[in-house]
Amino acid sequence: MSKLNKDILFLIFEELKKDSKTLFSCLMVNRVWSETVIPILWRNPWCYNINYNNKVHLFAIIASYLPDHNKKFLTRQELPSISRQSLLFDYMIFCRSINIEIISNIISIGSPLNWNQFFLQEGFYNVIMEKCYELKYLDMRSINHQIFYFPEAKVHLGSLCELKCNTSIDDSYFYGLARICKYIQRLIIINNNIKTYYGIVKLIEVQKNLKYFEWKDEFSDYYFVENAYEEILLELEKKADLIIHLRLFFQFVCNEHSILQKILPKFIKLKTLIIDDFGYCSEVQLKKLVYHDLEILNIDYITISTVSNIIENSGGHLREILLKHNDFADYEENFSQDTLIFIRKIYEKCPTIEYLSIVFSPSKEHFNEFEKLLNVCQNLKSLLLIISIIYERETDEEILKNGEELLNILIRSAPFNLREIRFHDDFKISLKNLEEFLEKWKGRPALSILTSDPTYNDNDYVKLINKYKNDGVIKDFIYDSRENIYFSYEK
After folding, report:
1. Pick from 206, 257, 209, 215: nearest CA to 235
2. Cβ atoms of 451 and 423 closer than 8 Å
3. What is the pLDDT of residues 316-364, one digit of tens each?
4. How far is CA 415 from the centre of its chain?
5. Residue range 221-230, pLDDT digits in tens
6. CA 14 to chain CA centroid, nearest Å
7. pTM of the model as a whole
8. Cβ neighbours of residue 229 closer than 8 Å, sequence gap 6 or more
9. How far is it, in rounded angstroms, from Cα 174 to Cα 69?
10. Which residues touch 139 (CB under 8 Å, ≥6 apart)?
11. How far apart are CA 177 and CA 181, in angstroms?
C-alpha cells in the first residue's frame, strides 16, 4: 500500500477529503504520502470538524507567512513565538478557500485583544491574496476587512465560485465584490438583519453563471416587513435561465409570495426546489410549474393535488419528495382520492425515488397502492409515513390494526435499500407486532426508526428495542417531535 504511485494515492485520498483524522494519519507514512495528502488537506483547511481555537500549530503556520513587521509585532507583544525553521511545504499555495470566522478564531490564539487580532488578520489576508492563486470559496460572515481592496484581490477573487455571507454585512462589501466576482456559481445568504438589500441585489445582477441560490432567514423573533424580498426575487427572475438549485427558507409570509408564485414557472432548468413557509398560494399559478429536470422537491403548505401535478410534469428524475403534510385531510376536499393519485404518480413517474414523505388514509385501496409503490421504487432509502383519518376518529383497535397492516406490507415488499422509516404518532404498533416485524427484518441492513409517539419510551418497548439494537437489526430508534421529524431532512 505504501508503494502505490502518486496518481493512485491521490484518487484514494480524494475519497477521504472530508475525513481529516484519517488524512492526518496518512501524513506520517512517508514523504510521498505526505506530498500527496498536503494539497488535499490545504485546499480547504477550514472545513473540518475540529476545534480551531486551540490549533497552535495552525497559528504558527499562518504566522510564518506574515510580513516582517507583523512578526516583529508578535515578538514585541510577547505573543506565541514563530519558528525560524523553514516549512516543509508552501502550504498556502494549495489553499482555495477563505473562511473569515475560522481564520479569526485561529488568529485569536495570538492575542485576546481585538486591535491585535485586526492587525494580524490584515497581514494574513494580504498573504492570502499573494499566495492563493485560484480562490474558489469564501465564507465572509463576521468579516471586518474589505479584502477586495487588497493587492492582487481582483486577480484572485475573480475566480470565486462559492460565496456564503449574512445580511448584517454592510452593503459596501457586496458592491466591492460585485466589481470583481462575476462568475459565482453558489450564493448562500443568511438573512439575520432585515433591511434593504441593494448590495446583494447588485451582486446577483452581475453574475453570469449563478447555478445555486440559497436564502435562509435566521431571526430570534418573528418579523414582518412589507416588500422585504421583492428586489431580490425580481433580480433572481432575470437569472431564471441559469439557476438549477433554488432553496428559500422564509420565516414569515408576506406579499412577496405572490411575486414568487409568479416567477417560479420561469425557472425551467431547476433540479432542486426547496421552499419553506411558502404560504397558502394560488393553485392556478402552481399548476404552471413544469420542471423536466427536477430531482429534489420540498415545498411547505402545498396541496397533494398540486404536488401530483408537478410530478406529472417532471421528467422522471425525482429522487426526493419531502413535504410537510400537516392537516391535509382537514382542508383538502378530495383528500382520499388525491392521495391515491399521489401514490400512483410516485410509482409511475418517479421509479428512482430515494427519499419520500407520504400521507394517506388507512383504507385497503391505499395500502394496496402503497405496496405497489414499494415494489416499483427499489431505490427507496427513507420513508416518512403519515396516516390521516377523515371525519371520524378510529378506535384504538383499528389504529393498531393499521399499524400491523403497514408492518406486514413493509416485510413483504420494502426494497432492500430502505434504511430509515419515520412514523408520525398516527401509527400505533403493539409490542407483539413490533417484535415480529424486527424478527423478520433480520438479514437486511440495520434500520433507523424515528417516531413522534412517546409510547415507545415505555420500559417494555425500550427493552425490546435495545435487544434488536444489540442484534444489529436496529441502527437507531429515536423519539422526537413532529417538527423535528420533518426538519431533520433539510440539507
Report:
1. 206
2. yes
3. 899 999 887 654 544 556 888 889 999 999 999 999 999 999 888 888 9
4. 26
5. 655 566 678 8
6. 21
7. 0.86
8. 215, 250, 254, 256, 259, 260
9. 31
10. 46, 97, 98, 99, 100, 101, 163, 164, 165
11. 6
